[in-house]
Write a structure and sequence with these properties.
- The chain is α+β, with helices and mostly antiparallel strands and 518 residues long.
- It is built from 22 helices and 14 strands.
- A 5-stranded mixed sheet has the order 1-2-10-7-3, with helices on both faces.
- Helix 11 packs across helix 13 (235-257) and helix 12 crosses helix 13.
Length: 518
Amino acid sequence: KLPSSSITNILPRMKRLGGPYGMYGTVYGISTKVVHVGHPIPAGAILSPARRPSLRGKDGRLSARSACSASLKAPAYDHFKDFCGEGVFTADGEDWRAKRAAVMHALFRIQGKDGGFERKLEQLVEESARRLIKAFDNERGSSDSVDLNVVPILQRSTVGLIFRYITDTDLDVVLSDYTKANQRGASSTGVQKSKRESLMSSYRDSITRIRMIILAQSRSIWFLLPRFCYRFFSSMYREEQTVMGPIREFSRLACINAKEGSSIATLRETPKYRIDDGNNQRNGNPKISKNLLDEAITLLFAGQDTSAATLSWTLHLLSLYPKVQEKLFHEICQSLSETAGHEMLSKKVLSRLCYLDAVIKEAMRLYPVAPFVVRKLSERLDIGDPFMMESDLAKVSLPKGSFVCIWIYALHRNPEYWRQPDDFLPERWLSETSRERDRGIEEGAYMPFALGPRSCLGQPFAHIVLRTLLARMVQNFSFSDSRLEANEIMDPLSLRKDMQAGFTVLPQDGAHMTVTKR
């Protein structure tokens, strides 16, 4: 487990050490050089090859080969490979470029053949929102309000949404069929049957645990040794394989149940993911290549974990800042009243909800789901080159082969770029005056999805999902923290949840609040 202080102490350490751009170096293991970054200029140069003049050709253009080899994930992300294999998240170079193109095509271009992927996603998210509201109502029962942890409810909602989006199949139907099939084949003891029936719960628990296991690997002796040592001698590896059982089984269901024309089915037919043995069926189901299963694991995790975590943090903040929540509620009501309250939250409608957009951006600034990213420099990097229009700053070189840890959490709270950096101030995103005071908005100190060619490919998906689900929740319920209600003079900052830091970040011990029907 990574203590949250390991994240929150980065900025004070940078200030205390006083290095160029706040950077400082450490040695990991015996000789691995690691540079820690919390400033937008070096972060931008590392993540975005377009900002490096040394990678441009004589014509001034950046080649595709240079773009995908300038900063590498390997070996810094090798400890993810027992989780998601050689998929688009861990691949490098030409292999990554081909896989990213295939995944983007499957997710957003094929899906867009009947009016655009946005139209399809809007309809699916509205359906998910209705189910989410029903889930809260079920928890509430006949009472006006209920105290509960919203995290598992949000996780269940978002995993059902991403499953439906990439397979064109309803998750509840798939799980029902799966349970019936395993009831027929269950042993007389019923033990296996019981395990299979709880696949959804096991999957969610396993996803939570794998976040911690993977991070623990990166901070252990096993990260420094060859992978076969970890697999042969580590009890952590055996725990990881146990945890991976439900994850692989759940992702296998997505692969075999994906309908023709869906994202997974489209990937299944591409060269990187298909099985070319003349027989694409096994026991009446499509054969699944390891590459396809790896990608399904990645897409299911990324689609649900990041959305659920962001919504959890946002609701937690809104429960502590009731005035912000009420302002958001009134904006939503006013916008929907102009359309008789029946219009789907389309891209056009969402574009009118400026305060909704500001609330989500501010929540992601304070609690980016991935608090840091790591890259390995494939060549020496000069920062402060006049080409980057930063000639007034000292020129610094980072050596080839260095690992660079870019602390997105630190970028988002760097006081050089944000006024009152720890405060929850959605208004900073609205007026030009506020944006001028918060330099980070325009000067690259905000990157919740990272930056450059390796940035999160699910940004278009997240943009619609986060805004629609949050709008529908706030439209139907109010969210409050009983500690604040009991003592109105308390500073909401002191009531914020600690971070449960895996390789993504959730509220420690969940996000407990009072949910009241409006």
